[in-house]
Amino acid sequence: MKKWKILLGTVALFLGLLFVSGSLNVVSASSRNVPSNMRGYWYYYEGHGKYYRIKFTKRMFYSWEYKGHGSWSMQRFAVNAYKSHHKGWYTIGSPKKEMGAPEMYKYSPKKINGRLHKSLQFRTGTMYYRYFKTKVPHSFNKFGVPSWY
Domain locations in the chain? Predict the structure, then answer.
């Protein structure tokens, strides 16, 4: 009788762990979505009245770049978002990307001329940019990435 209780307890524990690990996979799959405050259109000022535009949806990335003479180039691909160990930063990239520096994004409003603007910081390799929800005619790109903050 005691052996049956131990066997049933072991089976129950095994099934419980199996159920918990299966439910954890569902949670981690949904955490790959782009955070809601980073979704939508974002603009980066390139100069001369031209803007580089990107858009995040729950699982897609779109970009439009002005090529000159009235032509634009557009790219789109599926993305996964992973929370970084740096406060507020997310690694957002294509699941098919195999090489290159990670692309990191962080939502952080920025005050310009006394007005707060919704802002998305972007950093990869040695480049650092700031995108805005509205077309702000200021450039905030840097080379030599600032320390994590």
Answer: 1-30, 36-143
